Amino acid sequence: MNQLIECVPNFSEGRDMAVIRQITDQVETLEGVRLLDVDPGKATNRTVVTFVGTPEAVIEAAFRAIRKASEVIDMRNHKGEHPRFGATDVCPLVPVAGIGMEETAAWARRLAERVGKELGIPVYCYENAAFTEERRNLANCRSGEYEGLPEKLKDPHWKPDFGPAVFNPTAGAIAIGARDFLVAYNVNLNTTSVRRANAIAFDIREKGRPVREGNPITGKIKKDENGNEIWIPGALKACKAIGWFIEEYGIAQVSVNLTNISITPVHVAFEEACNKALERGLRVTGSELVGLIPKSAMIDAGKYFLRKQKRSVGVSEEEIIKIAVKSLGLDDLKPFSPREKIIEYLLENPEEKKLVNLTIEGFANETASESPAPGGGSVSAAMGAMGVSLATMVANLSSHKAGWDDRWEEFSEWAEKGQHIKDELLWLIDEDTRAFNRIMDAFGLPKGTEEEKAARKQAVQDATRYAIEIPFRVMKRAFDSMEIIRAMAESGNPNSVSDAGVGALAARSAVMGAFLNVKINAPGLEDKAFVHQMLEEGTEIERKAILAEAEILTIVNTKIKT
Predict the structure, then answer these.
(1) Which pLDDT belongs to residue 96?
(2) What Å distances lie between residue 375 and 273, 367, 433, 487, CA to CA?
(3) What backbone torsions phi and psi does residue 98 show, to the nearest 5 degrees?
(4) Using 50, 70 and 90 to split pLDDT, how confident is the model at 97?
(5) What is the spatial distance between Cα 23 and Cα 10, in angstroms, rounded to a whole number?
(6) E strands within 22-181?
(7) How many CA atoms lie within 13 A of 221 on its CB side?
(8) DSSP labels for 161-209?
(9) Which CATH class is domain 4-178?
(10) CA 328 → CA 57, 268, 269, 307, 460, distances in Å?
């Protein structure tokens, strides 16, 4: 797997798109990097840019963007709602795939050193790239903001980690770090009061609020016997929050940074903000996502709200995300497009042609063409996907059946299992064709020299093995689906029992069809022990699938007659 890191620099310009474009052009024109999102904010006068790529390419793109920002942004003229101290205010690196946090932090320090040395900008390393515990916290590094930099840089305690301890009036300073995936998220309130928004922020953020003497707002902060300030922790871990007024929308918001969504997911933060707002006589009207979000966070949110409604979570990914968007009110202030905000969707190659994206007519026509692929393997996976989809439909109908309200969780669990199998079989439709193409590509390799012959032979063997493994996987998953189909035939909505029967027919056909593909590719593999294992296990799966189909059809036909 290629190493991938994400970079999310925040630039202190959110109003002049010509300036923003000059910065993002530095990223877009660099090979090995993909610009995922540009999110400007007028009130904050700040733009969050997100791009991803290999570490070397990302570091180069980040350096070029930081350099351009220092040329086109003059901090002496900057005003905005968000805390800031530099033209490029923060530049975090986030591990995405094939790379750990320690190595990502090393790349962040490498970038920091180059920025300080070549651009003459004071650099503070924060979060996992920090050299001291105090500097792990971004708020500490940025304390005093841009206006406080001249004095701060004179303090030896705040000597930059890289770059000169000299005030750069146009570029300011920058914080460069490595962190977990951070979700920047604003909760919208039906008020214009920043004080009330701040009160909710203090209620929910991990840091909480100080205990004060007398007046809870203006009173002197109490201290313990050791002279330390006394604070009341907020409700949520891994959560930072402040309140502000957004003139662009005419409302106050609670601006939330979720620094670890495995500890505090987005939907938990939203629900807690709603509860605290109600306690204070306010109402949350929706929320706003700044930058990107992992798909898993949206799926978790959608399933949370479905369960809260006592509805099945075994629905499509698209439907789950739709529920999340509506429940969180992410379209409250402006349209929300999952394809533009979910990182996994943005990483998809829009030019890749997939069989699963064709219409049924298109898939049938493609199969019926003179091309050898897609063939029986892809069609077998498609039959399996349709079979388990029928069982999942019965589970969802049963979950919502009048009078069966106390059984919704039982059927929801079956439907969720069905969705997982369906999604894997859909992926296998295209993967079977890719496996066939790998064999063709291997046979097309040069075979002039002895080295070329050896490399070609190995490539053919590897591709052949894969062309056996993929249909075998179709067999296993299609057979797994028969457990769900049987359960729906036995205890699901009786009005849909025939659908379970058709599902059984499709699943058995998927198993037998995929096994034919295993067997036709087996003679080309020299690893006879592996071939023997696949054929032996495949024969047993086929036998069990035929038996399961007969038993399910007996149940179905008995119920139909009854």
Answers:
(1) 82
(2) 53, 6, 8, 31
(3) 70, 15
(4) confident
(5) 11
(6) 33-41, 46-53, 88-97, 123-127, 174-178
(7) 10
(8) SBS-SS--TTTB-EEEEE-S--EEEEEEES---HHHHHHHHHHHSTT-E
(9) alpha beta
(10) 35, 10, 10, 15, 51
Residue 413 and residue 455 in contact, taking contact as beta carbons nearer than 8 Å: no
The tens digit of pLDDT for each residue in 222-253 reads 888 888 888 899 999 999 999 999 998 999 99
Alpha helices in 12-54 (DSSP H): 17-28
Token digits for 36? 């995922």
Retrieve residue 494's tokens. Answer: 């009786």
| Matching fold, domains 183-347 and 355-561 | no
Q: How far is CA 45 from the centre of its chain?
A: 27
Q: Residue written as tokens 């010509």?
A: 18
Q: Which uninterrupted H or E stretch holds 363? A: helix 360-368
According to DSSP, residue 31 is labeled: T
List the catalytic residue out of 82, 332, 420, 423.
82
- Tokens at 444, concatenated: 């097309």
CB 64 within 8 A of CB 307: no
**Other C-beta atoms within 10 Å of 18: how many?**
8
Question: So where are the chain's domains?
Answer: 4-178, 183-347, 355-561
CA-CA distances (angstroms) from residue 447 to 435, 450, 456, 526? Answer: 21, 7, 7, 19
- What pLDDT score was predicted for residue 245? 94
d(CA 505, CA 499): 10
| pLDDT per position as a tens digit, 508-523 | 999 999 999 999 999 9
- The one-letter amino acid at 447: K
d(CA 520, CA 532): 13
The DSSP 8-state label assigned to residue 226 in this structure reads T
**What string of DSSP letters covers 369-432?**
SSSS-S-HHHHHHHHHHHHHHHHHHHHHHHHT-TT-GGGHHHHHHHHHHHHHHHHHHHHHHHHH
In the chain, % helix, strand, coil (3-state, to 5) comes to 55, 15, 30
Gap between the Cα atoms of 37 and 184, Å rounded: 13
The owner of tokens 């024109």 is: 29
* Catalytically annotated residue among 180, 432, 480, 499: 432
On whether the CB atoms of residues 467 and 435 are closer than 8 A, the answer is yes
User: Which helix H or strand E contains 285, and what residues bound it?
Assistant: strand 284-290
* Residues forming a β-bridge with 50: 37
H or E segment at 254? strand 251-258
pTM beyond cutoff 0.70:
yes
Q: State yes or no: is 432 an active-site residue.
A: yes
Contacts made by residues 131-134, CB under 8 angstroms, sequence distance 24+ = 131/161
CATH topology of domain 183-347: Alpha-Beta Plaits (3.30.70)
Fold exhibited by the domain 355-561? Four Helix Bundle (Hemerythrin (Met), subunit A) (1.20.120)
- Pull the structure tokens for residue 68: 């351009």
Decide if pLDDT at 199 tops 90.
yes
- Residue 160, preceding peptide bond in cis (omega within 30° of 0): no
